[in-house]
Amino acid sequence: MIDLKNLTIKKARKALDAGEFSAVELAGAYLSLIKNENKELNAYLEVYNDVLDQAKDADARIAKGESYPLLGIPLAIKDVILIKGRKVSAASKILENYTASYDATVIVKLKKQGAVFLGRTNTDEFAMGGSTENSAFGVTRNPNDVSRVAGGSSGGSAVAVAANLALGALGSDTGGSVRLPASFCGIVGMKPTYGRISRYGLIAMGSSLDCIGSIAKNVEDAQIIYDAIYGHDVLDSTSIFDTTYTQSPIKKDLVIGIPFDLINGDGVDIKVKENFEQSIEKFKASGFKIKDISIKNLDLALAVYYIIMPAEASTNLSRFDGVRYGLHKEGKNLLEDYMFTKGFGFGKEVRRRILLGTYVLSAGYYDAYYGKAQIARNILKKEFNRVFEDVDFIATPTAPFVAWKIGEKSDPLSVYLADIFTVTANIVGIPAISLPSGNVLIDGKELPLGIQFMVPNGGENLLFEIGKKFEEIKDK
Amino acid sequence: MNIEDVENLAKLARIELSEDEKKSLLSDMEGILGYVKQIESVEIGEVEADLKVHNVWREDQAKNSEFSKELIIEQFPDAQDGFLKVKKIL
Question: Which of A321, A328, A351, A427 is 20 to 30 A off residue A228, Cα-Cα?
Answer without folding.
Answer: A427
